[in-house]
Amino acid sequence: MLLPKQMTRVLIVGSRGALKDTIEVLYQLEAAHLIDFSAEEEGFSLGAPLPESSDASQKLLKLRSLEKDMGIDDMDVRGSMDIAQVEKDLASTIFELEAEITGATESKNRISARISELEAEKAVLQNFQALPLNLELYRDYDSLKVFTGKVRADPSSALKAAVPQSEVFISDDGDFVAAFVNKAQADEAQKALVQFGFTEVPAPVGNGSPQQLVAKVDEELSTLRSSLEEAVKKLDDLKDKHAVFVKAADEHLSIIVEKAETPLRVGTTPYTFAMDAWVTTEDLPKVEKEIAEKLAGKVHLEALETMARREPRGHGHEEDGEEKHVEEIPSKLVNGKTVGKFEYMLRLLSIPKYREIDPTITMSITLPLFFGLMVGDIGYGIPFIILGAIGLKKCVSDDWRTISTLLFFGGIWSTIFGLFMFGEAYGLHFAEQAHDMSWSSLLGVQLPHEIAIGGFEIPIGIYSKLHNVKEILYMTLWIGIAHLFIGFCIGFYNKAIRYGFKHAVIEKVSWLMILVGGALLLLFLVDAMIRGKEVSLTDLRILIAAPLLLVGIVMAYKGEGSGAILELPGLMGNIISYTRLAAIGMSKAGLALAFNTIAFEVMWGHDFHVLGSNSGDMIILIAALAIFLIGHLTIFILAIISAGLHSLRLHYVEFFMKFYEGGGVEFKPLKVIRKYTTDKNGVSE
Amino acid sequence: MADAGLIAIGAGIAVGLTGLASAFAEKEIGAAAIGAMAENEKLFGKGLILTVIPETIVIFGMVVAILLWLNM
Using CA atoms, how far apart are residues A215 and A512, in angstroms rounded to an integer? Predict the structure, then answer.
């Protein structure tokens, strides 16, 4: 059940005339993962695309460029059309549409080009507006050289000193200058000007005062802008009117092209074709029946081999170059609806191989569990559940759905841990505390330490994240050991089905023994070093742990070589890495404590020794609540990022390294996905 | 206890220095991982794994700090 679906390799052969119908049938079955034909086999050559492909491709090309012009290439359009209608419209509408759109786009581009031209002109003219000269006065002199341009500071006195025979005009704000000097002294004048950061702005052609010219340009600009608006509106209208058709036609043509190009993946001879494909063993009878019924006598399907999970070449050969010739068997993951929501997180890493366990199900349990343990607070847990539920309902994209899934299930665990284990909301415990404020002291009500349900005393809050650090740290170490234990067990199973029991024992049981031995040693060390108990070396735990460790290390050394010895501290590191479950919870609790202290103790004057004490000032209470809200919103967002990412990391790095290989190929059967089109006729096309 | 201050300083150094060490290591790997992801988005998972590997250093530092703190 945990393994990907079993696959059977099939060969479909038939007369070449039946190729089109065969492709059609396979697309309807949605059950065959085609293997690309490698052009090595003698007598076979790659098939040629079906004739309808070239016409459809041409239309598609035209359509795509229209989509770009209309700006709907990546827009989400709502609505769909029947393909019969699309087919009918394609012949007539597409050419009209092309003419209309091209016209509208061209005029829009022309107008925008003219607008930017005029705007540049205006920018130049605006400089000259500040000087009291008409434009014709800047040119056509025999003996004068005219400098116009921007300066950083007023150069007139320096220029007068360098070139006494000069006339300088400067704008009121002192950053634009026009200087008239004798041509013979132009060089000196330039040198003097350069010192003031002179950059030349040549005078524009034209006559009359710059003010009048600017006004004229403005007038033209405003008419152009309104016609641009019209052009844009026209394009928008066209877009609204035709978006659904364009999208539907795009989809319809893409499907035609995809189907028509399928022969490129098939081997053909002048009269026959041969198609290699993977079909799940479960679907095989259905595929056989369908092909026999619909293509009787023309096409034959032969089931070649049902793939076992065991590696055909035995252990140690998987790295060989020969392996490349063996087609990768696609993995079709089997997960239910709820567990399937976590599949995307596995895909982020890679798809499982055909011959290994799909770990989605273990991930779907432990990932939210770790998330919940790190957050461990009802105050955040319930909003997480609500946010996640909304996200699962509203979001479409895989990324957001995955985040929502994690928030929803993680939120449930956060609430459970928050209520029973830590007994807190927003970093404040419910029941009265000796050293801290709590909801009891804040609200002035005695909240219970435990509730009795049907004779059972159910505690609310056993541990405090900040006061029981030792216990929580110790607990997380054991969570790590348990998680890694599961990892090695899955690894054992994977190795056993792939290479046989013996290999699995040497490679994975060795590590299981080291892990168990290490765990017993941990128990011993905690007693000896932290609790300070009297222990002797003949302790039962040592007597079991020492041989386990010794045999485990020897076996690992035999199985994996000296690398295994180097991995020993790595395993210890992996276990210690799980203390992040405690660390992140602590850091969040610390932040929450800081915000709560600022808001209630410092601002509101709350004293936790006295139930319900405060300064009683309403305005300060509102300010304190604002601080409380902002602070906890920050922690809330940090919680999503840190808790989510760290629980993901614990799986990707620590857990998966123990068994997961990945790098499989996803099972992608021939099928069409229609979003904008509907196919009423279904079968007959 | 008279040594409380020294223990606190020691714990601070343990977390602070290992934090810096993790940060330096992750900086380089993270930049390279983002570069690789820009080329091929499918590398996100591998990039994330490689980026967070040095984080173990700071976790060790934290454990040491907590052990010190518990002896305070």
Answer: 86
